[in-house]
Amino acid sequence: MLKDRPIQQFLDELASKAPTPGGGGAAAIMGAMGASLVAMVCNLTLGKKAYEAVEDDIKAALQASEALRARLTDMIRADAEAFDLVMGAYGLPKESDEEKAARSAAIQDALKVATDVPLACAKACAEVIELSRAVAEKGNKNVVSDAGVAVLAGYAALKSAALNVYVNTNAIRDEHFVHERISELNAILTGMEVAMEEIYQEVKSRL
């Protein structure tokens, strides 16, 4: 599985001519990195006498960040599988009218799957951004810069995932599906740039 490969192998494959992993997998791993950094700040805050008052909040953030890390890591595989599904549909025979119709329907179905994967990734990345706020404000001051890296990784991952939603919906003919998914993406994106900048500035103020 992609998530079990050494980082160098993953990067080599990302840089190669191979279609997967690609931008979708990169978005997922960036989001997972953001979640991991949130967890790191939590782990370096818990048990410290100076932060006893926020221990419950930090424990909650740790639990949530670890769940997000698992979700986002699984999306690396999901993204590759969705791409393979699309490519498989494009590779179907198209000699007869029946084959052309079946191929077209399969492509449309595959593109919908390939849209929903990065949409789920975008949602998870938005959660990483919001979660980083708690550790930026309440986490161990000695590692607060890592909360800043977490929010930036989460934001980069969010915008990257959004691009993958856009590119797939552009080829989908079901207007209701496209409208629904783009509306959901817009709702996820709303306020995230402002949130990212607020959290970043909070981190800077605590350095």
Radius of gyration: 20 Å
Distance between the termini: 39 Å
Give the overall average pLDDT. 95
Helix content: over 70%
- Low-confidence stretches are none
Q: Provide the β-strand percentage band.
A: under 5%
Q: Given the helix and strand composition, which structural class is it?
A: mainly alpha
Total E-strand runs: 0
Overall morphology: elongated
Main sheet: strands, sense, barrel: none
**Can you count the helices?**
7
Describe the structure.
This protein is mainly alpha-helical and 207 residues long. The protein contains seven helices and no strands. α2 runs antiparallel to α3 and α4 (97-138) packs antiparallel against α5 (144-169).
Describe this structure in a few short sentences.
The chain is an all-alpha fold and 207 residues long. It is 79% helix and 0% strand.
Q: Which helices and strands, and how do they pair?
A:
Layout: H1 7-15, H2 23-43, H3 55-90, H4 97-138, H5 144-169, H6 175-189, H7 192-206
Helix pairs in contact: 2-3, 2-4, 2-5, 3-4, 4-5, 4-6, 4-7, 5-6, 5-7
Core attributes:
single chain; 207 residues; mainly alpha; 0% strand
